[in-house]
């Protein structure tokens, strides 16, 4: 007969399923086994366990090589100290029953000689324990049947109501940390009374509780801890187990603890006791004196906004004792967001392709993250016989406008989070006006006090900057204002202290720079001819500004930028698109309002209106060659241009009108007007009458954002 190999696995609420015999009776021959016998689960039970008609484990006897046969009799025997209650087998009839023995014969549908080798006899292990201990096995004896014999474990008797264990032990240092999860199991279903009971968890005196969380499953599902009191190394609480679920229960505790200053290396144990929990002691952690001594060789001053500063930071992180760093974890040195480790740069993107950093001191080298502001050291799992030193040296790039102490954060692998000053950031130059100026909205050529730009250290203002593969770039300083404020002439530049050399100076528009700040329209560009050997001061004088009506009242700031004080790669690296601001003046009482948006002129009348207000002028409008001629001076007033913003150049016979960021120029006898340097052709030329320039006004009105409308019936020109 050919044997069929089978492994039977059934799911249940017990811990383990066992499908093969643990021992084989001497009368059996494995080669001639005729049935496959197994218990579907192994129970963890108490010494007074009683299934009481509701057994949770079953002995299966399955056909293997041959079918069950009518008249076969086999015996099932319990171990000493265990008795049968009232088992009701399936597909078998009890022939004889004593306290520990059942003799059975196959019956019913399984006695069919169908040769399917699939029929099963099920014998529920409805038992009661009375004096047994340890591992319990049920024995199957074939007697005169074709059924195989053997001994099969069906239960293990535990002492007490619960057992406590941990799956893995955590290593901790001096910082607050979680220990191993404590698993408490009910030894048998119903051993622990449902409801509220007291529990206590005790740590060694050198440790203290920080937290204890718990979840329950099985018969302890929904369990909770209340009235938790943590007093140093002692934690007491009320354990609440809901009623109604009599299945075997499980509790999972996650302890959070912290070592005190006098803690000694070694195992950390927890003693567990309670009204319903059996006394137990488990190791939840191994305490080690982790930590590091952190040293910065020298705290250097670093120029913010630079990229090629050669001053480096040298940091050493040394174990307090051999093996103090936790193996398999990482030590992390994190710089502020405004600080990065520079190196080789992609000139198009400003991305650091290869950071410049050197490592030494031990067998551990670090890696720099993609943002170039974190160095990570992976600690080997094998401890070193001597104290490990993690040493790195690197230059730093500091974001424009960020000044003061630069602190690095060091933590990980047992090192408690520490902040260490590694450098000090200073600006390359400090701009400051000699006094506070005052400017009026809508006026041109207004003077402000001189501005001093003082180097903080020698050579801070660069003659040229190194762009790596892209070559070198001329160093220059930009001083500019927000849109609406422009220079009316080129200020004077002088080095009043030190030996910095200035080359050319010019007022330049943003469009004429290869890389201008995004908020710049026009600025003063100062080219640097030679770097200083001692801190120098630049004086900017004779500064005259025009302020158009788009500029709000309040503080007016100038901004400092340019490659001499801010390296282009620094700007790319930190996405800097603007200069560093500083106050130069207050914008105060605006020039006469430009809110008068309507006016009217009547042909032949010297009376005109601004809104509903009538005024008188010294020249009347007239019609010539079907065109209406109006006095430019009064039309400009209607459009919000005061007399200070109307300039007559007698030599060139040209009038200039200034409004906002627009300049309109009209020349006598020429059939065109010029708007911000762009010529617009007209069909007639302006003329002088009664010492007033007269002109058909449509083109001028349009250029200055207004509209001229003619009413033939009333012979009135409306300016809107």
Automatic annotation (TrEMBL):
Name by which UniProt lists this protein: Copper amine oxidase-like protein
InterPro entries registered for this protein in UniProt: Cu_amine_oxidase-like_N (IPR012854), Mao_N_sf (IPR036582)
Taxonomic source organism: Aneurinibacillus danicus
Pfam families: Cu_amine_oxidN1
All copies of domain Copper amine oxidase-like N-terminal, residue ranges: 612-719
């Amino acid at each position: 007969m050919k044997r069929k190999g089978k492994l039977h696995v059934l799911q249940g609420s017990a811990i383990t399923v066992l499908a093969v015999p643990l021992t084989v009776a001497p009368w059996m021959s494995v080669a001639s086994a005729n049935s496959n016998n197994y218990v579907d689960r192994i129970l963890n039970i108490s010494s007074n366990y009683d299934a009481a008609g509701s057994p949770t484990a079953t002995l299966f006897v399955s056909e293997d090589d041959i079918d069950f046969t009518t008249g076969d009799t086999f015996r099932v025997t319990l171990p000493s100290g265990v008795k049968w209650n009232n088992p009701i087998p399936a597909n078998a009839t009890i022939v004889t029953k004593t306290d520990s023995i059942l003799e059975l014969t196959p019956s019913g549908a399984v006695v069919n000689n169908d040769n399917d080798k699939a029929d099963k006899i099920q014998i529920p292990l409805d038992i009661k324990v009375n004096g047994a201990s340890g591992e319990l096995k049920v024995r199957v004896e074939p007697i005169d049947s074709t059924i195989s014999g053997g001994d099969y474990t069906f239960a293990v008797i535990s002492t007490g109501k619960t057992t406590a264990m941990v799956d893995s032990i955590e290593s901790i240092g001096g910082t607050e940390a979680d220990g191993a999860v404590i698993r408490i199991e009910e030894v048998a279903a119903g051993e622990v009374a449902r409801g509220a009971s007291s529990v206590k968890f005790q740590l060694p005196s050198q440790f203290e509780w920080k937290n204890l969380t718990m979840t329950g499953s099985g018969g302890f599902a929904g369990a909770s801890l209340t009235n938790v009191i943590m007093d140093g190394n002692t934690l007491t609480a009320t354990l609440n187990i809901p009623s109604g679920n009599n299945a075997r229960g499980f509790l999972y505790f996650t302890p959070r603890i912290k070592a005190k200053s006098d803690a000694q290396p070694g195992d950390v144990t927890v003693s567990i006791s309670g009204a319903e929990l059996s006394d137990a002691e488990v190791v939840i952690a191994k305490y080690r004196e982790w930590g590091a001594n952190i040293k910065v060789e020298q705290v250097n001053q670093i120029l913010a906004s630079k990229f090629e500063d050669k001053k480096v930071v040298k940091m050493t992180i040394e174990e307090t004792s051999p093996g103090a760093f936790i193996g398999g974890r990482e030590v992390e040195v994190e710089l502020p967001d405004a600080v990065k480790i520079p190196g080789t740069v992609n000139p198009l993107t400003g991305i650091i392709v290869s950071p410049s950093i050197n490592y030494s001191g031990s067998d551990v080298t670090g890696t720099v993250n993609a943002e170039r502001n974190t160095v990570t050291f992976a600690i080997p799992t094998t401890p070193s016989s001597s104290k490990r030193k993690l040493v790195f040296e690197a230059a730093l790039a500091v974001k424009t406008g960020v000044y003061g102490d630069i602190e690095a954060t060091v933590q990980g692998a047992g090192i408690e989070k520490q902040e260490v000053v590694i450098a000090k950031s200073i600006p390359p130059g400090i701009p400051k006006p000699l006094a506070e100026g005052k400017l009026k909205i809508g006026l041109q050529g207004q003077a402000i006090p001189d501005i001093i730009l003082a180097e903080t250290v020698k050579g801070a203002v660069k003659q040229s900057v190194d762009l790596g593969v892209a070559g070198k770039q001329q160093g220059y300083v930009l001083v500019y204002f927000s849109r609406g404020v422009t220079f009316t002439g080129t200020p004077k530049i002088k080095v009043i202290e030190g030996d910095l050399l200035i080359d050319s100076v010019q007022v330049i528009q943003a469009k004429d720079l290869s890389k201008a700040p995004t908020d710049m329209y026009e600025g003063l560009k100062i080219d640097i001819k030679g770097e200083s050997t001692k801190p120098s001061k630049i004086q900017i004088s004779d500064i005259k500004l025009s302020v158009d009506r788009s500029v709000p009242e309040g503080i007016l700031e100038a901004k400092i930028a340019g490659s001499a004080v801010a390296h282009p790669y620094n700007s790319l690296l930190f996405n800097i698109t603007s200069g560093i601001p500083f106050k130069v003046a207050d914008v105060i009482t605006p020039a006469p309002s430009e809110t008068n948006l309507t006016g009217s002129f009547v042909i032949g009348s010297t009376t005109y209106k601004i809104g509903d207000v009538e005024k008188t002028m010294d020249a009347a409008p007239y019609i010539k060659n079907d065109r209406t001629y109006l006095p430019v001076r009064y039309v400009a007033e209607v459009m919000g241009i005061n007399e200070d913003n109307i300039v007559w150049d007698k030599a060139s016979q040209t009038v200039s009108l200034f409004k906002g960021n627009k300049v309109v120029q009209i020349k006598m006898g020429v059939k065109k007007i010029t708007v911000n340097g762009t010529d617009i052709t007209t069909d007639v030329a302006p003329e002088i009458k009664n010492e007033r320039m007269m002109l058909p006004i449509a083109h001028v009105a349009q250029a200055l954002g207004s509209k001229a409308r003619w009413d033939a019936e009333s012979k009135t020109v409306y300016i809107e």
